[in-house]
Write a structure and sequence with these properties.
Blueprint: H1 4-27, E1 33-43, H2 49-58, E2 62-67, E3 72-76, H3 83-94, E4 99-107
Antiparallel strand pairs: 1-3, 1-4, 2-3
């Protein structure tokens, strides 16, 4: 027969194990981080470097990367934007006839 002290000890160890599993599950959920100054733009059609520069200039942005073979580019604001400003910029770009879609520039980590 197991003594009351041993039962309490076993119960305590089980609680610790369960608490550890619960906190590990929480920490494994990645937090979606994104740049507060860069957006990824899918272009409606193939554009020259000058056309991409013109698109960026129309919104006060700089061309960070031009992925011409993918009809995509990364456009960057000269300064960090608030979440509201970033959403407004994305909304304005989305209705531009030269733009197919716009997304945040998500930051990926090797340990995710």
């Amino acid at each position: 027969m197991i003594s009351m002290a041993k039962k309490a000890c076993i119960l305590f160890v089980c609680c610790l194990l369960l608490a550890g599993c619960k906190s590990a599950a929480k920490s494994e959920q990645p937090v979606a981080e994104h740049s507060m100054r860069t957006v990824i733009v899918s272009l409606e059609h193939e554009m020259s470097d000058a056309e991409v520069e013109s698109l960026a200039a129309d919104y006060g942005l700089n061309v960070l990367y031009n992925y011409s073979s993918l009809n995509m580019c990364a456009l960057a604001s000269p300064k960090d934007l608030s979440e509201k400003q970033l959403i407004e910029l994305m909304d304005r770009l989305t209705v531009d006839s030269r733009v197919l879609s716009v997304d945040r520039d998500y930051i990926m980590h090797a340990d995710q």
